[in-house]
Amino acid sequence: MADISIKGLKKTYPGSTELATNNVSLDVAEGEFMVLLGPSGCGKTTLLRMVAGLDFPDEGSISIGGRDVTYLPPQDRNLSMVFQSYAVFPHRKVRTNIAFGLVMKKVPRDELEKKVAWAADLLQLTPYLDRYPAQLSGGQRQRVAVARAIVMDADVLLMDEPLSNLDALLRLDFRAELKKIVQQLGSTTLYVTHDQVEAMSLSDRVAVMKKGQIAQLGHPITVYEEPADRFVGGFIGSPPMNFLEGRVTQQGALEVAGQSTKAPEFLAHSAARSGGLPVMVGIRAENIYLEDRGTPGTLDATVEVVEPLGHATLLTVDLGGQTIKVQVASTVRVSPGEKVGLRFDQSAIRFFDTETQLGLTA
Amino acid sequence: MSHATTNKATAPAGRPEPEVDRRPLAKRRRNRILLQVGCILITLFMALPIYLIALSATSSRAALQEFPLSFIPNNFSLETMQTFLQSTGILGGLINSVQVGIFTLLLSLIIGVPAGYAVARFAFPGRDPYQLFLLFTRALPIVVLSVPLAQLFLQTGLYDSVLAVVLLHTALALPTTILITSSVFLGVPRDVEEAARIFGCSPVQAFLKVVMPMAIPGIAAASIFTFVMSWNEVLGASILTLNQRTLPAQVLSSLAESPLAYRFAGGFLLVIPALIFIFFMRRYLTNMWGSTIR
What we know:
The complex is a heterodimer.
Chain A: E1 4-11, E2 21-28, E3 33-37, H1 44-52, E4 59-64, E5 67-68, E6 79-82, H2 94-104, H3 109-122, H4 138-150, E7 156-160, H5 168-185, E8 188-193, H6 196-202, E9 205-210, E10 213-218, H7 220-225, H8 230-235, E11 242-248, E12 253-256, E13 259-262, H9 265-274, E14 277-283, E15 288-291, E16 299-308, E17 312-319, E18 322-329, E19 339-344, E20 350-353, E21 359-360
Helix pairs in contact in A: 2-3, 2-4, 3-4
Chain B: H1 2-14, H2 23-57, H3 61-65, H4 79-86, H5 90-121, H6 127-139, H7 142-156, H8 162-186, H9 190-198, H10 203-214, H11 216-232, H12 235-240, H13 247-255, H14 260-286, E1 287-288, E2 291-292
Antiparallel strand pairs in B: 1-2
Helix pairs in contact in B: 2-14, 4-14, 5-8, 5-11, 5-13, 6-8, 8-11, 9-10, 11-14, 13-14
């Protein structure tokens, strides 16, 4: 086990002018589960591949456990990896697939067999040890790939979207299983995904990436509740955060959709100085409550679409010309066209700068 | 009357829905039968001459003169084959041919497989011209290649040796070997190779332990092409040798003035090794790990 320290990593792929990673620095503590989250093309996989040694950076450095590995080949880095496409060796049986890394490390035979048996047991592969990967289902193949990675006792465990090729139900099961296994191993893990639910559920910390840079780094709940900018708020959460155009007046009122409520202190101060401040108001669907039209402190709105989801009901609501999503309990009965009042949970409202899209805090 | 009642009673029970249209099934069956017939015809087309040669080669000399020829081997005799094998140069030619075939195969794989891998995996400068250039060597007629080669080999002392023919055949086989193997290497996923690297392989080890085994079918196909080509090639071998003839060259040189039995026996001996080779390589063509394609 070891920590990973990434400093100022820059990489441009040949034939491209855009930076795949632009000056990325990241520290992963020993034993930490770090998730790199972002939309496709944000540079998260590039970053992982550079840590793995499958790609080399143009600038910057990577060290694992205090050892500089920036330009070392993958086999000299003492890491293991789970690939998105499983990448199990089709010409080898499950047993030799799992043992592959150990054989390469020339681990003694009895220890090797013990480890293979342990990993196979952990991943429920024992009955399949003498089969070829072609005779397994996709989920089992991914288990083989995970077993192959965990027997290595490597310093660092890398995972590149390991669940994305599994079907939804299997993914849910395997996600919890993966979390349990990694917790047991306690290995330093760098995990790449574009699935925000995966990131939230697995990570100790999550690094949200955008256009080759880290947009926000932090505890998953912090990232969820206090997105650093509009991109993060819009990327994490299902449905994503609602954004409303608003304005803080000189008098300290927050105007949204032609209606006004009280603005928070720190915004009121700066608005009083500057004579009014345009802001982007962000609020999550579950932090908006439905009330009767006209209740004091609510905003007038009209329900447009009602989507029952089973555990909750998702409403698409028109608020003075802006469309937002509201999540209410599934017991609430509303119908399209109904005129309602919306109450925002004041503590859950986030404000963003209209120019820079960055979050505004006190 | 009773008949009508039964009809009425069974109609709703026996035929609750309209009859299923089975005509597409019949059409499917007919197409399948046609396909089988086609396969059998093509097989006969290929197999019948081989059978006739084998029949003639294993019949006695007298039986060959009979009319009409019998389709059933009723007078089996090794006499013909024996005479043929005892003729001058035949046994030597056979040994030469086997040697040339095996060495050509080895040499073309040793050079061709890495080249195919390079063409498939790496974007090196001049890759496209290189691939085009490969095809050009094949475009040159063997005669055009052989005469200057004979001149060169005479000067270097390689003329009339197994090695001379091996070099020519390797040159002829390489384009196909490279093209076939490169297309198979393209089918080997890059991340499997990367997984091998992560789990402790050097690039060469990753190639030998993971990529090569996955490319076995392509390598087998290339081997068949190479061996059969080398076994059958007669023109270049005739030009480049005098005493160290390969079997086809030897047979060709003496074919015109030899008896009928000799020709059949020669033909038989020329066909058989190539068939045996294909028979053994065939399983690598189709039999992959745990998923047999048949």
